[in-house]
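Dear all,

This email documents one entry for the complex benchmark we are building for the journal club exercise. For each entry we list the sequence lines for every component of the assembly. Then comes the predicted three-dimensional structure of the complex as a token string, followed by one or two observations. Please use this as the template for your own entries, and keep the labels exactly as they appear.
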Amino acid sequence: MDTLAKSPRTMSRPAQTVGAACLSFLFGMVSCPAADAPLQFNRDIRPILSDNCFACHGPDGSNRQADLRLDVREAAIDAGAIAPGKPAASTLVERIRSTDPDAVMPPPHAHKALTDRQKQLLSRWIEEGAAYQKHWAYEPPVKADVPLGTHAIDHLVRLRLTHAGLSPAAEADRRTLIRRLSFDLTGLPPTPEEVDAFVNDPSADAYGTLVERLLASPHYGERMAIGWLDVVRFADTIGYHSDIPRNIWPYRDWVIRAFNENIPFDRFTVEQLAGDLLPEANQEARVASAFNRLLLTTEEGGAQPKDYEARMFTDRVRAVGAVWLGQTTGCSQCHDHKFDPFTMRDFYSLAAFFADIDERPIGRREDGMVLAAPDDLKKLADLDAALAAAKQKLDAVLPQFKAAQRQWERDVVTYDITLPELKPDAEFGDAEKKTASQVAEVLKKQDADRDGGERNAVQTYFRKRVSPELFRAEFAAVAKAEQDRNGFSNNLPKCLVTVKKATPSVVRILPRGNWMDESGEVVKPAFPSYLPAPAIEGREPNRLDLARWLVSRDNPLTARVVMNRLWKQFFGTGLSRVLDDLGAQGEPPANPELLDWLACEFMDSRWDMKHMIRTIVSSQTYRQSSVATPAALAADPRNRLLARQSAWRADAEIVRDHALAVSGLLVRTVGGPSVKPYQPDGYWENLNFPKRAYPTDVGDKQYRRGLYTWWQRSFLHPSLLAFDAPSREECCAERTRSNIPQQALALLNDPTYVEASRCFAARIMKECAGSPEERIAWAFRQAVQRLPRVEETETLMPLHRDQLAAYKAEPAAAEALLKTGFAPIPNGLDRAELAAWTHVARVLLNLHETITRN
Amino acid sequence: MVMEQLRTLLARRAFLGKASQGLGAAALAELVAPRLAGAAAGRGMLDPPPLPQKAKRVIWLTMAGGPSHLETFDHKPKLADMHGKPMPESLTKGQQLAQLQGKPLVCFGPQHPFQPMGPNGTEICGLFPHIGSVLGDICLIRSMTTDAINHDPAHMFMNTGSQIAGRPSMGSWVTYGLGSDAADLPGFVVLTSLGKGGQDQPIAARQWSSGFLPSRYQGVQLRSKGDPVLYLTNPKGVSRDRQAADIRAINLLNAQHDALTGDPEIATRIAQYEMAFAMQASVPELIDTQGESGRTLELYGCQPGDGSFASNCLLARRLAERGVRFIQLYHKDWDHHGGVKEGVRLKALEIDRACMALLTDLKQRGMLDETLVVWAGEFGRTPMSQGGDGRDHHNKAMSVWLAGAGVKRGLVHGATDDLGYQVVEKACTVHDLHATMLHQLGIRHDAFSVKFQGLDAKLTGVEGARVITEVLA
């Protein structure tokens, strides 16, 4: 306990001292206030009021019932709902305890019922004086003092463990640690050699060395990108209706690079929201600004620009809420927020920050910025010049050409000439006949009555069918120059980026969110009214200001939101369990001091992501075993107090990466266009406009990491989907983690995993020359980085033996199995043996342990 | 079965291992029990459902593209009289339009004659004589409206009650609430079929996504080509015996690992491999309609495996028989911006007999009383012409029909104005339709919610909905 006393020797920058008044806050568990300590509004009361009362008696003024609000203390007292110290005189208590269906609160039609315990808590809180607190997440985070020589995370976790009578689990063994770190930091399994090296490393800082090696790996950025790409909803296609491709993958590579280069998170944020507005905006920063283009768009016929402009504004505001603020801003599209102080005006004022983005609300996206190296730019300029020169030459002769065309047109009309394709006995294809008849129709019109397409059609016809030799060279030169130019530029990567338009769109408050209602007030960019705003004088704040505000020291939310998400990556659950909502309806953090400490440290370190990860993984809390002792499991089934590590099934992409890595198929190239691994035939049959084939990639592109998989929003690759990868139509701060039969079917039967199994089998046979037992042991080490136990070998031996016998009797079946996937069947291996080992390998790749990080 | 050995092992572990050591059995049960229950389909969150359950399951026939109510079920002789005349501006001024925005609005008369059908002589389009023959079992709602006017958001609205992606589809809600009686099939199955007219609007997988509900409630697509369920078929060269051997080994190794680590997910994983293996047998059995009698095939008018809407209707009945909770069929090609006359004729050929057959077949087997059948598109179509021979999207009026499971038989509910533009009687919303469906399933729509982004999210939305009690017997 005395560790709490203010210590002059603190590890971190001195911040506000944790005073005695905070004791109960510190020690109380999320759901269980001590019987003798005063209640805490944020922890004990706000969740009850918010979930049960605020919808009608909260911040949303337009729907407030009985003119009573309970989210503001004075208002609740004035209305008589709360009489501090006197529960019996408080109508709130009277109403929640009423048995009269017309009087009881919450009313029956709300289908909300307070438990007896909740009623007691409310009474007791009023008895204790009905103290309110500002919502925790809107207060600046406070950095707890930590005694010198202790690890802040361990210190803050153990304070709670001690109080709960729990002790931390033992450190996990080194094999588990390297496997865990590899999954968490790179998403790739360690090789047995790497495991051995770490297990046998006698140096005092073996663990630290390993962490540094993994943080420096180019695959670290790939691992980190997965979660970020979810929350910003990165995908290769537009989302709505035809769901066609757009040029966006360079943004994904930028994210990977940014993590690898450890760009400070504030810079990372600013470049994404407003990279185009930076005075020093280079190509990189502009690619980062593709963030603003990640939303859903449509090409559906009949879509109304105003409708989709409104959808885009709301999409962007929801994104800011999900990615940085941890606020469910979407609620305020139609009404003031029911639980948080976020108003409709806040919503549309936030939207107004994005009003300067030049993006058409409907229709085809542009190709985007050409990403060119300096050499490419020079070549492009040369090709442009060549094209211009060719066009100039053509322009010089065009009057003569046009005169000839006019003469021909006159002749056709004057002498009523039937075009050759349209003569009754003409032997032409249907397409040619159709073109000719269209031209014939146009020729009946005066030139002034023809539209652009019609004029083109006539000119093209005249040039190709009537006078093909006339200025042939000039036309050909232009065509060639165009082809050269476009051929080159088409092969350069392109990326949608943010381009600022001269006149921002007008943003109005849309009553009830209705885009057809233009009666609402026009709003200008403004920061949410309930959060500290920067002083900007003499001009309107812009997107750059918004970005800088999000990562300013005064913003109480961003650092907490980002650290909460990061925590989940390393512990399986956020400190506040609801990652996208730090508002009233979210969950007060299980360990608020720890979340605050992380948030402060993140900002103090100048938003250094690798520093924070290093800090987290170096803690004993992280290094604990995930095996739950019975006592720990009973005391804390969901592991909110962290008396152990947790185990969970790896993310979809990592399930794939792992199998490819173990099989030896994985191609470790970082970045590049998205790839198309095997996908069941006909999976895209419900796509249309246009109908699409799925061109399965061959060669290296077939074996890339999962995060490079083509992200088709309306039909995400089924193997990724089975393992809960989100479609990324909306921002996704947290994936569900399911355990469903489709996962078994994918791991068993998806050609990716069958091919991985047979290639893994080939490795087993080629790289381990021993007995079947020895080979099983070798394979086990590859798949789960440990040796098999006796009973495990005994399970796999008969499997191998029986399959071998069966395939010897049926060589055609072995041949068929081994033909799965594009990888060649290695020479010199007995096919029946290889097929039998394929089964062993397949079993190993399907194990729960194999796809589980523990 | 291959899993006997494993069950024994698991049972022994549970008994001798955890229990005898007194290992926080309650805590463990909290974590394991609901997952296991869910893994084997079985019970839902509402067990038992709070209201009397009239419908045990739903078969939802989605006519994708937006069927014209004016060429199907909404009889508008006045519109014929007005054919070619300007649409009264009093109706259309300031209203949301799709592709007709800014274009002249001209009345376009119904393209096919209507005839009185069914016991009450209800006027429906003559292209649908088979549906007409079972009209006595159908409750026709002519007063449905929707919020959305483009296909993608309109489908989302019809399926999830929201135009924003990420919400659970109704099939997911229903299986989440009620579970499923199908032991070895998914609780929510989706089938799609194409029309011959070439107006096949795209349909995204989000239409049957479980959104923020657990993934096990997502719709599983049953495909007519290739693997009927994705990754269902063993790799080439792997017989069912070989597959069984592998799964046995996987589950044994997992069980052995579980004994050491006590990770509750492992028991679920084992159950999922069992379920997958069972599905590998049950799905082929399900889709093999060869064994259906000649009379049945004739009733539906389909050939086994032809991928038609009629075949899917037959499969829907087979799914219903096997206890699947929510069966959704999509039949595309209803998007008749042009050629509405020929287009609807083609659709009628594809769906008329099949719908009748489904209702008749269910009835003959005594299942119609406990199966709610819904026929609906995502919106209606304009009484105004588009391009002289088509109709544009329209969200102010559409016709849908219900049958079975306590729905009034032979009723016509609600009406549009003389031109079929706007609902003038007993307007219903998509949320009302959802509320009504849930009500028949025994679910209180306003109390059936899941916390999402701070909200008690409901299929029927935040603005309130009402059960259309008038259509219920």
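Observations: The CA atoms of residues 95 and 544 of chain A lie 49 Å apart. Confidence is low (pLDDT under 50) at residues 1-31 of chain A.
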